[in-house]
Amino acid sequence: MRGSVMEAANAEERVVPMRLQRFLARAGVASRRGAENLMTAGRVRVNGEVVRELGSRVDPRVDVVSVDGHEVALGEEPVYLMLHKPAGYLCTMRDPRGRRTVAELVPLDEYPGLFCVGRLDKDTTGLLLFTTDGTTAQRLLHPSYEKEKRYVALLDGVLSRQAKRALEGGVELDDGPAAPARVRVLGAAEARGIPFAVHEAPKGAEAVELTIHEGRKHQVKRMFKAVGREVLALHREALGPLELSNLPEGKWRELTPDEVASLRAL
Q: Is residue 95 annotated as part of the catalytic site, yes or no?
């Protein structure tokens, strides 16, 4: 958790160039199409020089951009987006060993200072939140806010009634007891709709929905292990008020105003 907050601070200090038309749109000058028209008309200058080439990039923290002689700057409104994380990507914005990271899947060129809030394991899929708002990120990461996280786990066998009751009551982990969870065993029809390939699972595997409000390392996997089950695949469907819904794997979208308001309300 502490590493995520520090990474947020480092991300906010990082300088990332962005497309000029995107800069103009975010500054409230015009829509992206309108910004392109301004550029091709020769009305946009960067550091005093007219820029007509679409796709030109600027550094918002260094370059001076003007339209019709008037300097423009980015607004202060932070950015929020969700990603449907695929398996195989590390939840970090850069990796010194050159491994694949979620930074490859989100538009860093368009949103300078973007960083992921919290983490998912490399092999875990599902909803991952990104923002440029460090204050909201720190609040979301703080355990006192107790935001719910809903997962679907593919288990190596049937979850017994006794194991289900244990999870609902709060199982003992090596770093202390886990808080009570909500548990729901998914039927065959529901299981077909989850993102990992249930039809390729070993015989007897079962899909279980688990809702928790803590955020300890590998917590879901450790909770199931505590009741005698191994997690074969794990997917996060919801984070607080945010639902992944039909967002395709590997794709991102900006949060709606209502979603942003619900996050801040936490």
A: no
206: how many CB neighbours lie within 10 A of its CB? 18
- Which amino acid would we find at residue 197? A
Q: How far, in Å, are 125, 132, 193, 208 from residue 187 at the CA level?
A: 21, 39, 10, 9
Q: Where are the domains of the chain?
A: 18-72, 77-143+243-265, 148-239
The residues near 37 (Cβ < 8 Å, ≥ 6 apart) are: 30
Among 224, 233, 236, residue whose Cα is nearest residue 166: 224
Helix or strand or coil: residue 66? strand
**130-165: per-residue pLDDT in tens?**
987 777 787 787 777 678 999 999 999 999 999 999
Please report how the helices 219-226 and 161-169 are oriented relative to each other, as an axis angle in degrees rounded to 10.
Answer: 130
Express as a percent the part of the chain with pLDDT over 70. 85
Whether the Cβ atoms of residue 66 and residue 45 lie closer than 8 Å to each other: yes
Handedness of CA 131, 136, 141, 147 (dihedral sign): negative
* Three-state DSSP state, 235: strand
What are the start-end ranges of the H helices in the chain? 2-13, 20-26, 32-40, 134-141, 161-169, 188-191, 219-226, 257-265
The pLDDT score that the predictor gives to residue 84 is 96
Helix (H, G, I), strand (E, B) or coil at 169: helix
What values do phi and psi take at 18, rounded to 5? -140, 160
Pairing of the two strands 125-131 and 231-239: parallel
Tell me the CATH number for domain 18-72: 3.10.290.10
> What CATH number belongs to 77-143+243-265?
3.30.70.580
Point out the catalytic residue in the list 95, 109, 121, 175: 121
